[in-house]
Amino acid sequence: MIRTFIKLKRYNFLLNFTQPVQNLFYKISYITKSFKMKKQFTNSIYLLMAIPLLFVGCQKNEVADDVQKSKLESEGSGLLKNTITYCGTPMVANLVDFEQTINPGTVTVGNDETKLYVTYELSGDWWIQNATLYVGPAANVPGTMNPDGSGNFTPWYPYFPYYYYPWDFVQNHTFEIDLSTLEDCFVVIAYANSKNLVTNENKFIWGKSVLKYEGYYLEYCKQTCGPPPLGGCESSYAYGSDYATCFLNIQWLQGDNWGWTNGRLNVGTYTWPIYAKANNCVTTDGLIVGSVTVTYNACHKVFVTYNVLDGYELSKTRLFVGFLPFPIHHWHFTTDPDHFPYKHLNLNGATTDTFTVCGVWGKIYVIAEAEVCDAD
To answer: Which residue of 27, 96, 229, 282 is 20 to 30 Å from 193, comparing CA positions?
Structure first.
């Protein structure tokens, strides 16, 4: 009878211990399903519920290390991306609450060549508890839109397909979306649940367009990606790929500037890129600023045409064409463009330039140099 009594006591103890935990589990599962929160959050809840049952086999410092590691990883995912090179001009809108009583931060919408970036950035005592985002056609907006930029929306997953639930409060987060999945112009609805850590106040905030209603939306069109600026003018060279030999690879050659001689060329037409800032002839470090087309015909003429990309212009062009790989100056081979035989030195912002060289025979070499500048 004593053994039976002890077993009953143990059973009641376990029942009393596990029943609240089980009830808590049911409540958390219901909340999780209702709001369809991240799988990471659900897994964390399972882990926390399992800790009391496995506590005898765990050491306190190991559990603390795991929790701290998860926290840091989650916080890191919400940091502001500050290395984005936007195409064109990004859109910046204020984040405001429904009553427009606070302006705790901004939302920035912009794109590069492959992705759309939507960045929430809060400041002061305001922090992000969670954030959701709609990006897509106006016809698919989950709610109603008004012409004044206001609307009545449902900012919950799955109506808003992009969502972020940090482990702890963060002030910055960037959503990244594949640009190829979006039309040229689309609607952006940026929503966040924010908290003031000093006053303990909660506010729902939106990227604001014009007037207040139950929500706000933004309209954005993809920005065209132009060439990156040079920061002035740069000496640039045509790179003939398999025909190209870097100046720096010729040990006996006088001069220390980079560039390429291209040859030996037979009669035909060749088109090559023009590189700026390709120091040491490393093309991956340089910028393509235009192209050169070389046409060598059977009538012993060579036509060389320079073209630069939008956003750039030509200040000077200097050219060598000959049966030797380099021009000769004072009885020495040289790579100094000032000593090239063909020059156009006052192009005044032209975007194209052509040379005609006559009386050419046999296989030839071409060095095409240009001073390329940012367009005004």
So the answer is: 27
Please report the pLDDT score of residue 4 as a whole number: 40
Which residues, in sequence order, are bridge partners of residue 126? 196
Which CATH number belongs to the domain containing residue 275 in this structure? 2.60.40
Q: Is 11 a residue whose pLDDT tops 80?
A: no
- The answer to whether residues 206 and 216 touch, using CB atoms and an 8 Å cutoff, is yes
* Under 8 Å between Cβ of 265 and 294: yes
Q: Which residue has the tokens 């065209």?
A: 224
Residues 141 and 208: their CA atoms lie apart, in Å, by: 16
Integer distance in angstroms from the first to the last C-alpha of the chain? 99
Tell me, what amino acid is at 66? D
Q: What is the pTM of this model?
A: 0.50
Beta bridge partners of 47: none
Q: Which of 221, 260, 269, 222 is nearest to 241 (CA)?
A: 260
Which tokens go with 314? 């030509």
For residue 310, which of 370, 371, 369, 376 has the smallest C-alpha distance? 376
On the question of pLDDT at 268 being above 90, the answer is yes
| CB-based contact 364:263 (threshold 8 Å) | yes
Phi, psi of 118 (to 5 degrees): -120, 110
Question: Could you tell me if 100 and 213 lie in one domain?
Answer: yes
How many CB atoms within 10 Å of residue 122?
Answer: 22
The whole-number pLDDT of residue 148 equals 77
Q: Residue 274 phi/psi, 5° resolution?
A: -105, 125
Burial of residue 266 (CB within 10 Å: 0-12, 13-18, 19+) is: exposed
Of 58, 80, 103, the residue that ends a domain is 58
Q: How many CB atoms lie within 10 A of CB 194?
A: 25
Q: Which two three-digit tokens encode residue 79?
A: 């940091």
